[in-house]
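Team,

Forwarding the record for the chain on the shared tracking sheet. I've put the sequence and predicted structure together so nobody has to dig through attachments.
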Amino acid sequence: MEPETSVIEEWNGSASSKLTKTATFTVAGATVRKSSLRFNHLSRRILDAFVPEGFPGSVTPDYVPFQIWDSLQGLSTYVRTMLSTQALLSAIGVGEKSATVIGATFQWFLRDLTGMLGGVLFTFYRGADLDSNAKMWRLAADLMNDLGMLMDLLSPLFPSAFVVIVCLGSISRSFTGVASGATRAALTQHFALQNNAADISAKEGSQETLATMIGMALGMLLAHITMGHSMAIWFCFLSLTVFHMYANYRAVRCLTLSTLNSERSSILLPHYIKTGQVLSPKEVSLMEHILPLWMSSWMTSRVENLGKRVRLSVRISSLNNDEVVDLSHLASSYYNKGMYILLPRKSFVDVVMHRDSTAADVLQAFMHALVLAKLDDKNQSVHIQSQSWMDKNYQDFLLMLRSSGWRTERLLSPSIAWKANWSIDSSDKVE
């Protein structure tokens, strides 16, 4: 009688749909035959050092194209860093007998000090805006990094202004450090589908380390080849800079963010009002700006950005007496039971948030302000029309947003620093 034969398979992977078979065991009585796929197992283990656990099911679809382009731009950065650092060290006096240690140390210290101060100032003025415009600031950060390295490369050409040029370059790079770090955190949260932001961040460090090592090796080779040939250095630097800017543009352009900010809301709401349909995150990502508005103002806008006309969290003390009177009338009439007040002012719509307002109230207030901005604000009935639209359509609009993949828990915006509380005498209420 032949012994019973059974087959046992060994699989590797954390996601049930993305498992890899690593070995097969055939058991016949007391005999065990093993057939292992060592190459596939080894390649998977190497891959696991650079991609999140459960990849690709644990990250969003735009993770891979973004990481490819981001790694390429990082590689370009490290190669150019070798060229710019070589020029900077030469300008400080490394290798020259007349150079003093204390002089070089002081110049390097002054460079770092101005960079740290620049980072603090940038955080103070723009820190609250980084999360709401992650794509724009991600690209702007790398452009500022390019400018900083350009300053380092220029420094030997202007010895009399060396300190000023180097400090300007350091300040520029300090903006990069703050903006890049903050936006990276926002993008990591976007990529994480299984609450695995820490794993994604750790694997990002592994990818960056690999790119750094390759970039340093290529940079040292290029620096050695071009040493003493200024034209070759400038040609390589400018060529790599152009590629760096292109790779950054492609990386940011492939991102499909599902969170609501001012511009994405300004695209979604008018389209819904016009067609009754909600655009998907992928469709909106192709329409939104990724360059700062002041840099792309010369371009023809593909969509009307109503969000530029809405000013959230207005400080009441910044209003004049007539505007405060108007605000009081609105509080006693159209918004007496609301968590916000909309105050049309020339070409803007100011939003005053109630002291007890929540994140959902901020989102509703912004959407209501977009509706108001789209209507004719010269008409006294604009508040009635906008409120009527909100009552009839807002909840359906939110449901359609969620079903299309949008996250509607909050509006990504600068922090709501100023709020108000209003109490209206019922005898003065406008019916």
